[in-house]
Predict the structure.
Amino acid sequence: MNLKLRVWRQPGPSTPGRMVTYDAVGIGPDMSFLEMLDVVNERLIERGEVPIAFDHDCREGICGSCSLMINGVAHGPMPGTATCQLHMRSFKDGAVITVEPWRARAFPVLRDLVVDRSALDRIIQAGGYISAPTGGAPDGNTILIPKETVDTAMDAAQCIGCGACVAACPNGSASLFTASKLAHLGLLPQGQPERYRRALRMVAQMDIEDFGGCTLYGECQDACPKLISIDTITRMNRDFLKASLSEGRGAVAKAD
């Protein structure tokens, strides 16, 4: 396959960027998108040019590092697929492919296709964990949980934190990411003691990080490589509302 790439090149966060065109010649259709970029980089290095910087790690669709906008679509044209699992046979021979970093105010570009996604880490640090003593693992395993609850929690737990939902959202919202983490922990017995405090803290941190508000466009679930449903956002909103009302009642009681 012979392709033409239009790649965003930006030397640093405070340096203006621009689109640069490269020829990707002799690309195998069974190569992944990242393997194709590796080939392009090897040829750039051979010519003494600076290779294209892009994030990657496991290359198995697990780590969420491969954050690329491909022809304006987060992770490319195949639904339920991370960039590292996207194969070049998904494109036509001779195609022009535009490759850009995530475009979101909360994800500043560091270099080329690499963005700073530490805002998602800070949302997790705000409450995406369980700290209340709930007994050992054997105790947790003895608690019966309805299958529907287990399935919903595990569907949400598939979130790999790639940020595609943010990049695809017209508002740059991180609601699907945050809601997935809240649903995963909040539906399981071990997460119940801190369920509502967790919702308050993580939603508050999401706002602090300057993510946009959610208006339920649904672009996030379409871009998610794990196909997580926006139903999790409804659950998050419900928990946040309950937590806000409970906190308000508590403040009134203390004043009295």
Summary: The radius of gyration is 21 Å. The longest strand covers residues 3-9. Confidence is low (pLDDT under 50) at residues 251-256. Residues 173 and 211 are 5 Å apart (CA to CA).
